[in-house]
Amino acid sequence: MTVRVASYNTRDFLDDRRAAARVVRALAPDVLLLQEAPRRFWPGPLVRSFARETGLRWPGGHRGSGGTTVMLSDRLTLVDCRHHGLPVPLGQRTRGYAVLRAQLPEGPLLTAVSVHLGLFEGQRLRHTHQILRDLPREGPLVLAGDLNEGPGGPSWQTIARVLDVLSVEEPTYPSWAPVEMLDVVWGRGLRRVDGTPPPLDRGGRDVRRASDHLPVWADVDLLAP
């Protein structure tokens, strides 16, 4: 079974939320890993409405996770979803990660993790180690998000020692003239399938208006045991 995994930093829906929803619908993911989902002033209705607009299901309960959360399509069966905060000094933007487990129609459980690392290298590395310690040791897994650093950074290299890059390696920030590769889909126990790409124009109006980040995605199959 091929599953499409996508990751998107939506900048708290401060740009054009409807454009962001159209971007996600064009991607048509089975698993959507979000960063900077709204997190203040009763954000639940906004996120729930976004899920409806994209045709996805949202487990809810993302308060305290620094704006990370996960949505899924009807092709997958939700098992559970956890949202976690990460320690940051008072006054800094909250950070966290979300972990969803879903049953594939033909196969084992898939673990999907959304992460959004911070602006400071040392903090990113500490948070990376904390997140990796919390991951299951076995089974297919995807981890995706906005790392706030590129392939040469220590957090990136730490993840690369245990997971493989599954998304296309190209710049994702800023969306209107991308020069930095900050967003990525990683995986374990999965292989990328180079099939028909989604009908999404990376340089199109919706992508530029929806967020300051480009989405990333990967079509993946389970590796043979």
Automatic annotation (TrEMBL):
Which positions fall inside the Endonuclease/exonuclease/phosphatase domain? 7-213
Q: Which Gene3D superfamilies match?
A: Endonuclease/exonuclease/phosphatase
Mind telling me which Pfam families this protein's record contains? Exo_endo_phos (PF03372)
Q: What highest taxon heads this organism's lineage?
A: Bacteria
> Where do the TM regions start and end?
none
Alphabetical list of InterPro entries matching this protein: Endo/exonu/phosph_ase_sf, Endo/exonuclease/phosphatase
Please list the GO terms describing molecular function. catalytic activity
Listed name of the protein = Endonuclease/exonuclease/phosphatase domain-containing protein
